[in-house]
């Protein structure tokens, strides 16, 4: 790798720091990409966070350097020349694969870049490669972070700990400094959960704020694409680049109304907690087990920080039917997702230019035929089989599930937020994920500490549709007040 100017350090560098280094001629995009390639070479055989590197990545870096030298207008973009890692269910029309971790889609040809990739490229970002994931975005029963193509991704903080899923590699790779920033996808917890488990920031946007076109789907009603990064500000840089209308995703048209004039970076405010009304639901979110007793004091301290920074804590709130909301099966979420998965996946596969499989039934048959290649013993396809048995959107059972989910959302989370005039709900860990999932609501998770064994834990700030500006203010102010995150021990 070429020698860097001055003593500039790339380790854990933020987007802001990288941009400043570009502007001061201390760093080129080629040097930056070469740094991440060296990190990948050193660490990925252990972490297994990355499935493949873009073979054109150095060419793209050179192109970014030429644009910067020429003073091209694109070089003023916040992500220009910054390498971005994509979860491997996000399509790229280049030399990379898009398989959701399954050999069933190896060699398939997508019709176009995913909507978010179009926006990243137009912002001058460099597509570094594809991140490992829980195969088919965890829509098969098995291990978090395992895919046939990528193997088992590991948590860089504690190799024996659950790396969580399904955007596992997106989280482990940025945590281990193998990428500047990354994109994940979430249907129910798949950004928030791995971000918390790997001590990084996970940003789940309002459904439709970012395009899902070209993303191997589970549910158009719940799927969203969002950043997984080391800092809140990095995540906001990425959100600014990818949010907005896409003609290939109808949900983006109505959600675009939530995007503020001037974008999201304006809400990176260290005093963003002042006057914010933050809801606290003790039961069940703050009910820690004996083995997690260290969390009790940690989160009481964090609540005190929020209060000291000017937030108004609205404590001891309750959510109607909370146990049902959080129960994947009782709520109707299980039924709804299986029905939607079959419809959405068949549609996605039918639009591919070429593909070894064209339907969910084909995927099931592939897995049966290639069981030694495609599955570890406990990694079955019961969800696939149950989804294949669903009979479409007009099925009364599916419609009943949707009605129940809407009722739970309106009488639960929406009522909690509106009646108490809350700017955000504050919850430890990722237990709020299903409540956000079924309503399509946004959330930002931020590192909040480390257990006695070194395993990370996090805090989540969530809100109603379009509450991203408030959540950015709250999460950024909390992050700056606490500065909890530290690199994995073996990287120090």
TrEMBL record:
What's one Pfam family here?
Amidase
Stated name of the protein? Amidase domain-containing protein
Q: What is the lineage of its organism?
A: Eukaryota, Viridiplantae, Streptophyta, Embryophyta, Tracheophyta
Q: Where is the Amidase domain?
A: 32-428
The record, for InterPro entries, names: Amidase_dom, AS_sf
* Superkingdom of this protein's organism: Eukaryota
């Amino acid at each position: 790798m070429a020698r860097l100017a001055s003593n500039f350090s790339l380790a854990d560098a933020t987007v802001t720091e990288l941009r400043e280094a570009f502007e001061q001629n201390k760093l080129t995009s080629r040097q930056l990409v070469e740094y991440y390639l060296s990190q990948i070479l050193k660490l990925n055989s252990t972490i297994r966070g990355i499935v493949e590197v873009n073979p054109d990545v150095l060419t793209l870096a050179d192109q970014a350097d030429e644009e910067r030298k020429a003073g091209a207008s694109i070089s003023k973009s916040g992500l220009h020349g910054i390498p971005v890692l994509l979860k491997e269910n996000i399509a790229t029309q280049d030399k990379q694969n898009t398989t959701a971790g399954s050999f069933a889609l190896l060699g398939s040809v997508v019709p176009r870049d995913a909507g978010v990739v179009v926006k990243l490229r137009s912002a001058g970002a460099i597509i570094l490669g594809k991140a490992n994931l829980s195969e088919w975005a965890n829509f098969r029963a098995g291990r978090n972070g395992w895919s046939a193509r990528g193997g088992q991704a590991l948590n860089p903080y504690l190799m024996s700990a659950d790396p969580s899923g399904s955007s596992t590699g997106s989280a482990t790779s940025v945590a281990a400094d193998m990428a500047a920033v990354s994109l994940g996808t979430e249907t129910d917890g798949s950004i928030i959960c791995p971000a918390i488990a790997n001590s990084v920031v996970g940003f789940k946007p309002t459904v439709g704020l970012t395009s899902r076109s070209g993303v191997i789907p589970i549910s158009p009603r719940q799927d969203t694409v969002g950043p997984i990064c080391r800092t809140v500000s990095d995540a906001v840089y990425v959100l600014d680049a990818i949010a907005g209308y896409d003609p290939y995703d109808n949900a983006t048209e109505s959600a675009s109304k939530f995007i503020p004039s001037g974008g999201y970076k304006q809400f990176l405010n260290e005093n963003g907690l002042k006057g914010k009304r933050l809801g606290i639901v003790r039961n069940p979110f703050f009910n820690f087990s004996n083995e997690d007793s260290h969390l009790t004091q940690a989160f009481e301290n964090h609540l005190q920080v929020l209060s000291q920074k000017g937030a108004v804590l609205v404590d001891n709130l309750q959510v109607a039917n909370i146990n049902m909301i959080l129960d994947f099966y009782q709520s109707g979420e299980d039924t709804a997702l299986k029905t939607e998965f079959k419809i959405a996946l068949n549609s996605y596969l039918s639009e591919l230019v070429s593909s070894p499989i064209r339907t969910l039934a084909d995927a099931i048959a592939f897995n049966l035929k290639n069981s030694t290649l495609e599955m570890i013993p406990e990694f079955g396809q019961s969800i696939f089989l149950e989804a294949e048995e669903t009979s479409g959107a007009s099925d009364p059972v599916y419609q009943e599930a949707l009605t129940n989910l809407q009722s739970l959302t309106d009488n639960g989370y929406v009522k909690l937020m509106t009646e108490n005039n809350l700017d955000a709900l504050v919850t430890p860990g990722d237990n709020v994920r299903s409540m956000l999932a079924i309503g399509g609501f946004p959330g930002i998770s931020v590192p909040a500490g480390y257990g006695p064994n070194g395993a990370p834990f996090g805090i989540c700030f969530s809100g109603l549709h379009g509450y991203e500006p408030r959540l950015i203010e709250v999460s950024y102010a909390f992050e700056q007040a606490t500065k909890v995150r530290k690199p994995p021990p073996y990287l120090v």
